[in-house]
């Protein structure tokens, strides 16, 4: 910005005014005076009309101290306000100052900084004692706050500003993206022509003036015909003109004065409307006779405009938020409608309907994966391909919008009836695929205040430009344009771009993802199958080893082992029939009874609700039911021809399954003198593997047993139940002799495998063996015992033994992992010193692993 001090007869070359703006800062309006102060001294730039207000000659006061001229109390108030200036463009105001000693006359003053100077602007105070200008504004704001739209807000604000200022015409003037302006609201006095709806070209307000409007919110011209007062001296001692950008008294460019005269306006007031620090528009006030507006009213007008700007921003923000919410709803609709879809073509109508509900258009076309799709009024495939090639040259990955397609893509001038404007949404990671919304041509009339093509003409003084003189209504018919895309619609399109990109990428990659998921499922199935086979083999080995302890002969051993393995086989068959889904407890009991009791099966009565057991519980219960059934046939109620078994089920309050086994009518029952493997299965399987309960009583009238299966292992009774697992029961320990290895911890959730591992470890030299089926139990054992070695099953149902491994590593205790899964790379990387024992394992492999762990 160039600041120039001039005299009234100076000729100024404004031929380059659009590029090199010139501010006329060397004059002030005659209704006030100005003093430039450095520290406490009037250094320069007093106006020559000082005497009209202060009865002092401007030339005489330069070099004087402020304290020699102003009343000390008034000077104290001015200095106090200087401390409140918090930015370079801040202005402080004082009202009703008794400025001169011994003089009751009142003044109003404005104070601001300009480079090294403090500028004091002084005006005569009015007769009105009302200096609280905020009281003018409060009722005005109460009225405009009721508005719900920008149009309604501006209409109310124009009326309020007219009532405050008394100007003949008050307009709300809004700037467009091309910097042209439009009068969108107006309040006028009777017999005054209306400017409502008129457009003004951008050249009417040069860029340097717009910049000043953004900094200094209010500018007043009280009389376009007054002779403004020059600044004395014209320049400071260092040769620089005084910057009066923030002055309220400064004179304006003679070009602007001539512009107003050409309109017939004799006084004007402009108050800026800012939104987010950008110039949104103006309150433009015209009067057809001179009008000096009191300082209090001008201050109130400026404050009103600032508060108006906040309300305007709130309405615009609320509108944008509402648009964003509609766009989010559209996102959710698209994602739900396109869920599971395999191509854009299948769902293109749904996409078009969703887009059109948010952004109005006449047709939508798309180019996705080499395929052209269209609905509504759109260009042809060949025409659209030309548009796609043009879109490749725009900013990749961004929404592109134009309401004049023929200007950016000249071939489009041949089909403006179908596509005068477009909004293109990229839907691929590289410039290739688009969904494009089209709008048809709209021939519209724009009312200009004079011909916008000729805003200025050559003046009589050589190359000097003068403002245009014609402001008569000039109507222009616009061709080749569509209805403009609003900023809210472009923003919505940008949000939808992310949604559509996600949808298209998902559809394009669906086949690839299906292949990846199939491979992952196959790998998981192989690993799970490997784990189950190893566990089954280890389980069978444990059954054989434990059964051998009770058998009196090879024949008896073969019978016992065969029965138990067949029981497991039958349970497995029932599970696999339903793809490893929960299976019926009643079906399990009937299968077992039919297999072993033959005709005696009718003497087993089942009552209560059936329970669907998870695979883990079903396998456990198969061995328990097998042992209970075979024991009854050998020693209990079914050992003769009269006894019966009553099995009753019940759903407990916590959703668990209660099973009651009652034998009656058979031979007298006595408790066994020795606890065999079958008894161990009955009493320990459910507590150890399911954290349930098992209780047996050997009454003379017959065996009584009660079992509880926690709710988490019961899929349903007549309705689904909520799992509420009970605390795991600790397996009873056995006395051990003193051997070299000390205390050994087994963490294994399968009871039979744990029993077999216990025997193997005792044979390997364990002093005592502690068995846990969960991380919680194992941690309690670690806290209360000195563990010399541990055997850890990796997978413990819904958890792993890695926390126990980490605790053992921290304590320096050796351990071995046992796993049925083939992939042990993850374990090896986390615990490189721990041997990994593959299931099923025998005594030799276990001994080797122990040796490796102790050595490591």
What's the structural blueprint in terms of helices and strands?
Blueprint: E1 2-4, E2 22-24, E3 27-28, E4 32-38, E5 41-44, E6 46-47, H1 51-54, H2 58-61, H3 72-82, E7 92-98, E8 106-114, E9 117-124, H4 134-144, H5 150-165, E10 169-175, E11 181-188, E12 199-200, H6 207-215, E13 218-221, E14 229-232, H7 254-263, E15 267-275, E16 278-287, H8 295-337, H9 344-358, E17 363-368, E18 371-376, H10 381-391, E19 400-402, H11 405-408, E20 421-426, E21 434-439, E22 444-449, E23 456-458, E24 465-467, E25 473-478, H12 487-508, H13 510-547, H14 554-577, E26 583-584, H15 585-597, E27 604-607, E28 612-613, H16 615-634, E29 644-651, E30 657-664, H17 677-690, E31 693-699, E32 702-709, E33 714-716, E34 743-747, H18 751-764, E35 768-772, H19 775-784, E36 789-793, E37 795-796, E38 799-800, H20 802-811, E39 815-819, H21 825-830, E40 836-838, H22 843-855
Parallel strand pairs: 1-2, 27-29, 34-35, 34-36, 36-39, 39-40
Antiparallel strand pairs: 3-14, 4-5, 4-9, 6-14, 7-8, 8-9, 10-11, 10-16, 11-12, 13-15, 15-16, 17-18, 17-21, 19-20, 20-21, 22-25, 23-24, 26-28, 28-33, 29-30, 30-32, 31-32, 37-38
Helix pairs in contact: 4-5, 4-8, 5-8, 8-9, 8-12, 13-14, 13-18, 14-16, 15-16, 16-17
């Amino acid at each position: 910005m160039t600041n120039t001090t001039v005299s009234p007869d100076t000729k100024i070359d404004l031929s380059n005014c659009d590029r090199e703006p010139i501010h006329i800062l060397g004059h002030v309006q005659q209704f006030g005076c100005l003093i430039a102060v450095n520290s406490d001294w009037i250094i320069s730039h007093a106006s020559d009309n000082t005497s009209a207000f202060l009865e002092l000659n401007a030339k005489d006061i330069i070099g004087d101290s402020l304290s020699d001229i102003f009343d000390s109390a008034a000077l104290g108030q001015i200095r106090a306000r200087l401390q409140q200036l918090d930015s370079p463009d801040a202005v402080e105001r004082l009202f009703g100052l008794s400025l001169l000693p011994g003089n009751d006359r009142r003044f109003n003053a404005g104070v601001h900084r300009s480079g090294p100077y403090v500028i004091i602007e002084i005006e005569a105070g009015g007769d009105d004692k009302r200096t609280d200008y905020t009281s003018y504004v409060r009722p005005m704001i109460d009225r405009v706050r009721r508005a719900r739209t920008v149009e309604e807000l501006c209409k109310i604000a124009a009326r309020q500003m007219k009532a405050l200022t008394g100007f003949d015409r008050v307009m709300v003037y809004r700037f467009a993206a091309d910097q042209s302006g439009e009068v969108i609201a107006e309040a006028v006095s009777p017999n005054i022509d209306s400017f409502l709806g008129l457009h003004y070209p951008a050249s009417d307000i040069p860029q340097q003036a717009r910049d000043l409007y953004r900094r200094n919110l209010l500018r007043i011209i009280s009389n376009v015909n007054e002779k403004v007062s020059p600044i004395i001296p014209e320049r400071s001692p260092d040769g620089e003109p005084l910057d009066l950008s923030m002055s309220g008294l400064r004179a304006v460019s003679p070009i602007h004065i001539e512009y107003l005269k050409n309109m017939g306006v004799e006084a004007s007031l402009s108050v800026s409307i800012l939104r987010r620090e950008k110039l949104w528009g103006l309150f433009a006030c015209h009067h057809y006779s001179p009008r000096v507006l009191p300082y209090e009213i001008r201050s109130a007008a400026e404050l009103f405009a600032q508060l108006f700007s906040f309300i305007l921003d709130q309405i615009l923000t609320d509108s944008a938020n509402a648009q964003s919410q509609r766009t989010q709803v559209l996102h959710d609709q698209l994602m739900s409608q396109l869920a599971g879809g395999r191509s854009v073509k299948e769902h293109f109508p749904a996409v078009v309907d969703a887009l059109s509900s948010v952004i109005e258009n006449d047709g939508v076309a798309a180019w996705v994966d080499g395929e052209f799709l269209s609905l509504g009024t759109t260009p042809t495939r060949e025409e659209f391909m030309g548009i796609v090639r043009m879109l490749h040259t725009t900013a990749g990955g961004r929404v592109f919008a134009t309401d004049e397609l023929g200007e950016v893509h000249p071939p489009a001038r041949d089909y403006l009836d179908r596509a005068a404007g477009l909004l293109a949404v990229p839907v691929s990671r590289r410039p290739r695929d688009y969904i494009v919304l089209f709008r048809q041509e709209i021939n519209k009339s724009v009312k200009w205040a004079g011909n916008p093509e000729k805003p200025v003409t050559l003046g009589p003084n050589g190359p000097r430009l003068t403002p245009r003189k014609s402001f008569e209504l000039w109507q222009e018919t616009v061709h080749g344009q569509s209805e403009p895309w609003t900023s809210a619609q472009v923003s919505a399109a940008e949000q939808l771009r992310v949604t559509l990109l996600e949808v298209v990428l998902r559809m394009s990659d669906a086949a690839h993802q299906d292949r990846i998921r199939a491979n992952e499922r196959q790998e998981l199935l192989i690993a799970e199958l490997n784990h189950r086979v190893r566990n089954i083999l280890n389980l069978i080995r444990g059954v054989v080893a434990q059964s051998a302890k009770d058998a009196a002969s090879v024949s008896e051993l073969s019978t016992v082992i065969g029965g138990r393995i067949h029981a497991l086989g039958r349970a497995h068959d029932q599970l696999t029939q339903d793809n490893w889904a929960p299976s019926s407890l009643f079906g399990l009991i009937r299968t077992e009874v039919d297999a072993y009791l033959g005709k005696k099966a009718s003497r087993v009565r089942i009552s209560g609700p059936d329970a669907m057991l998870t695979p883990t519980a079903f396998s456990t219960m198969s061995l328990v039911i097998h042992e209970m059934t075979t024991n009854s046939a050998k020693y209990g109620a079914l050992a003769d021809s009269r006894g019966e078994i009553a099995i009753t089920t019940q759903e407990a309050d916590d959703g668990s399954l209660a099973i009651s086994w009652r034998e009656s009518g058979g031979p007298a029952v006595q408790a066994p003198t020795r606890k065999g493997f079958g008894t161990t299965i009955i009493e320990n399987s459910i507590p150890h593997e399911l954290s349930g309960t098992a209780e047996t009583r050997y009454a003379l009238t017959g065996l009584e047993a009660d079992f509880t299966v926690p709710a988490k292992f019961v899929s349903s009774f007549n309705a689904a139940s909520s799992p509420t697992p009970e605390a795991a029961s600790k397996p009873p320990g056995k006395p051990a002799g003193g051997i070299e290895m000390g205390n050994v911890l087994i963490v294994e959730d399968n009871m039979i495998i744990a029993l077999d591992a216990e025997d193997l470890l005792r044979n390997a030299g364990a002093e005592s063996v502690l068995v846990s089926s969960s991380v919680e139990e194992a941690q309690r054992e670690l806290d209360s015992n000195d563990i010399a070695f541990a055997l850890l099953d990796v997978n413990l149902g819904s958890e792993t033994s890695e926390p126990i491994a980490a605790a053992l590593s921290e304590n320096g205790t050796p351990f071995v992992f046992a796993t049925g899964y083939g992939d042990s790379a993850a374990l090896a990387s986390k615990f490189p010193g721990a041997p990994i024992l593959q299931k099923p394992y025998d005594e030799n492999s276990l001994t080797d692993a122990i040796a490796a762990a102790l050595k490591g």
